[in-house]
Amino acid sequence: MTNDWTAESVPDCTGKTVVVTGANSGLGYEATKALAANGAHIVMAVRSPDRGRDAARDVLGEVPDADLTLAKLDLSDLDSVERFADWFEAAHDELHVLVNNAGLMALPRRETEQGFEMQFGVNHLGHFALTGHLLSALRETDGQTRVVTQSSGLHENGEMDFSDPMGEASYDKWEAYAQSKLANLLFAYELQRRLELAGEEDVLSVGCHPGYAATNLQRRGPEMEGSLLRRVGMSLANRAFAQSAEMGALPTLYAATAADVEGGSYYGPTGFQHMRGYPGENESSEASHDEADAHRLWELSEHLTGVTYGI
Q1: Which of 85, 97, 167, 191 is 20–30 Å from 42 (CA)?
Q2: Which sequence positions are flagged as catalytic?
């Protein structure tokens, strides 16, 4: 790894199939564009087909030979997750990289189709179910395959509240977000441990985070609250302090493609307070390495989603 690893450093991905959740905007869009520019076939898994079509058109405007497939995936509905996985396995013979990127941040309390708190349900449970459904495709694909799960530096503020994981008794939007991002890393590391115990040396599970990157993620919460003041404040903060979405996507691209990536690792910006800069290995919180919590979260996730991994 060099200190200036960029999108131009992405290796040739010709012949590889990559699923990117939330591929229509922000980090997912930038990752899609860079991977497609290097020959990958990208399955753009999006909640809104209309926005997905607009994004695909924009990618093709910059990468005319991009190989893109658009597919509907609503991570807030486990039935939609299962339908997407069934479609993918019927339509594709291989899966080289699954990028669990889509997410929500600091929303007023909402519930998913199955009644889960929205941030926990989308950021963690939806991706847990998706990965479980697609694990056989990853395991059966020749060569090394990867699961890349997007977390956040704010996972360091997170605590797993197993007594009230859905925030039904008490809800704080930022605490719920931090818990969901901690759950992402507990899941990523536990998946790697289980893969190793199962002897699956060719499937890697890694975590990543974008630092502070300017995306639509910061706008969604204020929009749902109807708060013009918070929306303007987030926009000004992005302009003043955030790095671009292109830079924020580099840790994802690194985790998905770099040759020296190791399973169970965590990648993010290497600059000031890991909020900006070129990608490299970061250290996550002590809580993210709590194997007892990881095991408990795994069992809870299997129970809530009905998805088991068989490893």
Answers
A1: 191
A2: 177
